[in-house]
Amino acid sequence: MIDTTEAIVLHHFKYSDTSIILHAYTRNYGRLSFLLQGVRKRNSRKKINLFQPLYILELEMYYKEKRQLQKIKEARNAYPYQSIPHDYRKTSMALFMAEMLYKCLREEEPNPELFAFISHQLRIFDLKKQGLANFHLYFMTQLTKYLGFFPHNNFDASSAPYFDEKKGHFTAFPPKHHHHLDKNESALMAQLLNLSEDQHEELQITRNRRIKILHALVDFYYLHIPGMGQINSFEILKDTFR
Fold first, then answer.
1. Is 83 part of any domain?
2. Is residue 194 part of a domain?
3. pLDDT value, residue 239
């Protein structure tokens, strides 16, 4: 069957001298993989630079249920980015977010609310001219709502000041394991969990604490998504915002 769907590029890799395997998150079917034959040829009608991480595409595809590698008839840029490909800060953050999504989005079934959230956030991210440093932190916390493990924000400076990553809530005493934040960073985490997509710009965090919270969020994902795998772009992102 031929169908048209929007898709967010997660990752692609070389399959042969002329072909690639593309992984994308689609509005209509969830995560799918595609074989694009000949796309690496110089005269290919489908240009390989169209399949960059987090590009939002409109795909006309030959869909067959349970087929491991779907086929694309036509691919178009559904939302040409204005700044993400040209701003090294945004490019670094986009690579990180794409790898996070590639590692944690596994369902081959539609989730329109999740797709709408990701697509909307990417459009906002592209248009932002300031307040970028906390965007990935906000994105990661909000994404957990759709993945089923959003933290319970029961923070209280006197009775529950420590964020326990394993339990996903704040505790009265520091846990015996090392998967937790100290009081100051836990207070910042509590603020982050309550922020809207505009308010995160106002959150004042030093670079060192931002890195610690990022470490904690990545660790939080590791704890709640078994077999997720290492995030290789993490080290690059840490050096982007100083």
1. no
2. yes
3. 67
